[in-house]
Amino acid sequence: MGPIHPIGLRPTQPIHPGKPAHTLSSEFMDTLKDMGIRSIRAIRIQQGVGTLALKEMATFTLNHDQKNALQGLGLHGILVAIFSEEDDINGNYKEKLKELHEHLLGKETIALLKNTFGLSQTPILMEDDNHNGVFLLQQSIVELSEET
Amino acid sequence: MNTKRRGQDKARIIQFADENKTLPDGSKIIYAENEDKIVVYQKFPLEKGTTYVYDRKASNITVNGKMGTLQDKKTMLRLSSYMLQTASDVELVTITVNGMEG
Q1: B87 is a domain residue
Q2: Which residues of B touch A117 (CB under 8 A)?
Q3: What is the extent of the structural domain holding B12?
Q4: What is the count of structural domains for chain B?
Q5: How far is CA B2 from CA A135, A145, B5, B9, B91, in A?
Q6: Per residue in A96-144, pLDDT tens?
Q7: CA torsion angle for B24, B87, B65, A113 (degrees, to 10)?
Q8: In angstroms, what CA-CA distances link A125 with A24, A136, B55, B63?
């Protein structure tokens, strides 16, 4: 999978709906710039009950056309972190990564990572295939069933 | 289906993509696991959350840090099943925690 570049995820593969979005294509990055998106911290695009819900960071907003454009790119269920060049130069992307995790995961999940799994440092997060997640959940239910 | 082994990752988290989404009973639930533990967290509005941690090797369970009982295991099983039954695939997000950032 490779390390995450502080500017963003490695732009090597195109985005496909429904697949884990570990990387961003250069075409997508260019599209964002064409849309006038210069400095953003996070986009989380999720499918929900027939509509596309867009989660936005406080420092970043999308207008209606930009949202439609992203939807037109087929971006669903993607967890993406994009830092501005300014963040990289200032070296404060780590702090912003922490803020990002809290915003995207929620405080309860961050607390679980720290308190239960002992992950005290800022973890690297990747969105995985939901089918894999559901499969693991099913396996765990079987495992718990055997213990009860 | 991508069936990555658990051991490659620090943890896996499965939760609703929309943080405001709740189960039909009104509670918020988060599932997490790694090689050693299965974790289910449930929280009702305005109440303190409950964290169930099942130790895979020791086969015991703790609830909010205190040793739990067989009944707690059954509750954990019930909550996991409840989440699986009531959440559709597209409502969930699965996050892999697989490293540390500096």
Answers
A1: yes
A2: 10-11, 32, 34, 37, 39, 97
A3: 6-97
A4: 1
A5: 9, 24, 9, 14, 19
A6: 555 555 555 677 777 777 788 777 554 555 555 566 778 888 888 888 8
A7: -130
A8: 15, 18, 23, 26
Residue of A79, A131, A144 with shortest CB distance to B95: A79
Q: Which of B4, B39, B80 sits opposite A141 (nearest CB)?
A: B80
Contacts of residue B12, Cβ cutoff 8 Å, sequence gap at least 6 = A128, A133, A136, B6, B32, B33, B34, B94, B95, B96, B97
Inside any domain, residue B102: no
Q: Which residues of B touch A53 (CB under 8 A)?
A: 18
Radius of gyration of chain A (CA): 17
Q: What are the pLDDT digits (tens) for A48-106?
A: 222 222 233 222 334 455 545 554 444 433 333 433 334 444 555 455 555 555 555 67
Question: With an 8 Å Cβ cutoff, is B64 touching chain A?
Answer: no
Q: What is the ipTM of this complex?
A: 0.73
- C-alpha distance from A144 to closest chain B C-alpha (Å): 6
Q: How far apart are the first and last CA of chain B?
A: 32
Answer for the pair A10, A87: CB distance below 8 angstroms, yes or no: no
Cβ-nearest to B77 among A108, A112, A145: A145
**Domain annotation covers residue B68:** yes
- Domain extent listing, chain A: 26-147
Q: Which chain B residues touch A125 with a CB distance below 8 Å?
A: 95-97
